[in-house]
Amino acid sequence: MILTVTLNTALDLTYRVRSLRPHASHRVSEVIERPGGKGVNVARVLAALGHEVTVTGFVGGGTGRAVRDRLSGTAGLTDALLPVTGATRRTIAVVDELSGDTTQLNEPGPQISRPEWATFLAHYEALLPSMSAVALCGSLPPGVPVGAYANLVRVARTRGVPVLLDTSGEPLRRGVAARPDLIKPNAGELAELTGSHEPLRATQDARRRGAHTVVASLGADGLLAVTPEGRWRATPPARIPGNPTGAGDSAVAGLLSGLMEKLPWPERLARAVALSAATVAAPAAGEFDRRTFEELLGRVSPRLIA
Amino acid sequence: MILTVTLNTALDLTYRVRSLRPHASHRVSEVIERPGGKGVNVARVLAALGHEVTVTGFVGGGTGRAVRDRLSGTAGLTDALLPVTGATRRTIAVVDELSGDTTQLNEPGPQISRPEWATFLAHYEALLPSMSAVALCGSLPPGVPVGAYANLVRVARTRGVPVLLDTSGEPLRRGVAARPDLIKPNAGELAELTGSHEPLRATQDARRRGAHTVVASLGADGLLAVTPEGRWRATPPARIPGNPTGAGDSAVAGLLSGLMEKLPWPERLARAVALSAATVAAPAAGEFDRRTFEELLGRVSPRLIA
C-alpha cells in the first residue's frame, strides 16, 4: 500500500470559454469537476496503474464533500482524508476555446487550526506502519507550519518507510534538510532551492542539501535523475502537444510505482517520462492517455551521464 | 408575502486577485461566497427592508446545498426552492485589486428535465394563493422552455397576483406579450426588445408590446418610468462610485416594496433609485449600504415628464 499526503486538497474546476478578456463577462460553455491537489492526482494515476493507494490530508465543507464523493468511485483507492472545519479550496482552469491557452485561479485553502494539525500528525503516524512508501505533495494550507513536510519526512524515516517529497519554496527547503529518499522538483523549484539555473549542477546541489535522490522534471526536456547508482537523462521520443497540467504528478506516480516494483532506475525513469507525456496528450487535464503511455514506454531510452 | 422566482439560482463567488492576466496563474487572496441569482438578491433586499418574502426556483448539488445553508439565516425569508438532480451553477466575479475592475465567469446552470419543470409549475400554482405579489427574475437554466416566463405571468394574472418580470432576450419578449404588470429592463435589454436605443421611445414601445408599466434602469442616469398614471424620470443626486453588481435587483426590490406599501409612483421610484445607488456604494457586491440608502432617499426627486 502506498500513502499519498495532500494537505491542501482541491476541487479542480475546468471552465471552457471562447476567449478570456479581463473586465468582460463570459458564458462558461462547459464545466468539468475533479478531485485535485497533487497527492490526489498521484494517487489516481497509481490506482489506474493497478497499485493499492491510500489518500490522506485535509478535507472540509461542501467542496470537500464533492472531492470525497468523486474519489469514492475509484477502484484501488482508499480515502483516509481528515475532516476539518474550513472548506477545501477550489482551483479554476479557464481554457480558451480559440487558443487552447489556460488561465489559472487558485483559492488559498482552509485555515488549519493547531489542534487539527496535531490530529493530522497522530493520524499520519497511525497510517504509516501499513505503508510501503509515502509521497508528500503540494502546497501547505494556511495555518500549517512551514516545517510540516520536514516533520513528516522525519517521521517516515524513523519508521523506515521510503518518502518522496514534491513541493516548493520554503517547505521544500526545510523538507530536503530532513533527508527524504526522493524529491522531484521542476526547473523553477530547483532553481529556487539551489540558486542555480543549470539543471545538472542544481540537481547535484539538491542532493548535497539532503535528498537521497533527485529527479528533476524539465518539461519537454524530460527527466534528469541524480541517484546513488548513477545519473540519467530520460527524454520523450517526440514533442507532445497538449496540456501539461498534472504531468509532474504522473511522473511522481511513475517513480513510486517503479520503486514498489523494484525496477532498475532506467525503467523507472522511462515509465515516469511516458506517463508524463501521456498526461500532456490526454484531452482532460490531469488524466493520462493509456494508449499513448503504452506506445511511448518502449521508445524512451534513458541515457547514463558520465 | 412576496414571492420571488429564481429558476437559475447561483452560488456567487467573488475572488480578489492582484490583476487578472490571461494565460497566467493567479493566487486568489480572498474568497466571498453568497447565494445568488436575481430573484434571490431581490428577496434579500426585501427582507432587509422588513418584508416577508418567499424564495422559489430550482436548487441542486453541493452548490445548491451551500445556497440553502446561507439563505437559512436570513430573517423574514422563507426557502421554498425545489430540489433538482442537476447542480446549481456558480458565478465567479474576479476583482482586480489594482484597478477595482471585475471579470465575470458564469456557469450555464443545471439541465432541467421535463418532469422537473412540470413539478415546478404545480409548486408555483400552490404557492401563489398566499402571495400579494410575484417577481420573476433572471435567466432560464437549460431545459426550461423559452416561453416559461410567459406561462408564469399568465398563471399569476389568472390568480389576480401582481407580477413583475425582470429578464432578457426571447424569454422577455414572450413574457411581455403575456401582459405582466411591470417589467424593469436595463438599456441593453430594452434596445434588444424594441430595436430602439432611444430610452423614452423604447420604454413606450415596450408598454405597447404588453407590459402594463415599464421602469427602465439606465445605470448612472437612474430610472425612467412609463405608467398608466404618468411618466417620470428619477436620477441619483450624485454619481456614486462603486460596483454596479446587484443594483438592478435592488431597484426591483424597491419597486416591489413600494407596491406592497401602496406608495405613489414618485415615492416608489425614489426608493428604487436610492436603494440602487446604495448597492453600488456598498463594499460587497449585491449588498446595500443602509446609511447611504437613508441619506439619498430624501434627495431623489422624480420629475414628471410631459
UniProtKB/TrEMBL annotation, chains A, B:
GO terms for biological process: carbohydrate catabolic process; small molecule metabolic process. GO terms for cellular component: cytosol. It comes from the Bacteria. The keyword Nucleotide-binding applies. GO terms for molecular function: ATP binding; phosphofructokinase activity. Keywords: ATP-binding, Kinase, Nucleotide-binding, Transferase. The lineage of its organism: Bacteria, Bacillati, Actinomycetota, Actinomycetes, Kitasatosporales. Residues 11-286 form the Carbohydrate kinase PfkB domain. InterPro entries: Carboh/pur_kinase_PfkB_CS (IPR002173), PfkB_dom (IPR011611), Ribokinase-like (IPR029056), Tagatose/fructose_Pkinase (IPR017583). This is 1-phosphofructokinase. Belongs to the carbohydrate kinase PfkB family. The keyword Nucleotidyltransferase does not apply. PANTHER family: 1-PHOSPHOFRUCTOKINASE (PTHR46566:SF5), 1-PHOSPHOFRUCTOKINASE-RELATED (PTHR46566).
